[in-house]
Recover the amino acids of this structure.
């Protein structure tokens, strides 16, 4: 069994990882909150915020709500120079933005952020997991 000791503000939280994968750990509120605090201390909390937003976005069924949420996620995390821009490849960023001559609404789909979500998730595991 593997133990992860996460230090933040002089308190230790202990997580038994064992059979759990990283995505399952993120479903545990206590772990996710402590991991968010750690990411804040590393100046990259936007990664977890984007990942959570992308997870919720995939489950929106009403098209107007999906369009408005896609625009919010894009403007907050994907758009170059956005307030909480995540670190993703230019290729993925361009694929999400689409052809500038087309309306963003015309290509909103449930998997719009799939590739960005994968890159951010990989970044969290490889570069941010304490």
């Amino acid at each position: 069994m593997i133990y992860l000791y996460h230090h933040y503000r002089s308190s230790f939280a202990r997580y038994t990882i064992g059979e759990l994968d990283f995505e399952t750990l993120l479903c545990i509120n206590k772990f996710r909150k402590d991991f968010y605090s750690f990411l804040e201390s590393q100046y990259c909390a936007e990664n977890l915020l984007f990942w959570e937003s992308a997870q919720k976005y995939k489950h929106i069924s009403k098209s107007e709500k999906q369009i408005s949420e896609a625009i919010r996620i894009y403007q907050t995390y994907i758009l170059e120079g956005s307030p909480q821009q995540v670190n993703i490849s230019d290729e993925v960023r361009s694929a999400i933005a689409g052809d500038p001559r087309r309306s963003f609404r015309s290509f909103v789909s449930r998997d719009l952020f799939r590739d960005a979500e994968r890159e951010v998730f990989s970044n969290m595991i490889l570069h941010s997991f304490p």
